[in-house]
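Render this sequence as a predicted structure.
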Amino acid sequence: MCTVFTRHNDATWKCNYVSNRLKEFMTVLKPDLMIVTQRLSVGNLYNTPLGSLEEAKNDSTTTIFKEYWREYSELTKKIIIVEPHPTMYDSPKENLAKLLSLNASLENYFISQKVRFTGVIS
């Protein structure tokens, strides 16, 4: 997962050359609108809740994000931030896709009826 906050991208995410050139592309393309749907919950940096609004104001990550939004706002007329879709880790669909991509046997693959009918993994 590569974020629009490129300095916060973890090296293990292996963000490629294109992903880390967003501001450069925006400078060339000069878009009227930037839509961001960014999942940050997968990075350890973002998983520690802050105790108060005052803590958030003084948090170093908040300061860095403010700088990003300032930089991006100079490159576009409007920024829309959309809450990202949920990610299902270790879901039946994900497991099936992984098995298929590895050409693995599906002989022992099953989805319990509870998952199939309720969508909930027990």
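Summary. DSSP finds five helices and two strands in the chain. Residues 41 and 48 are 10 Å apart (CA to CA).
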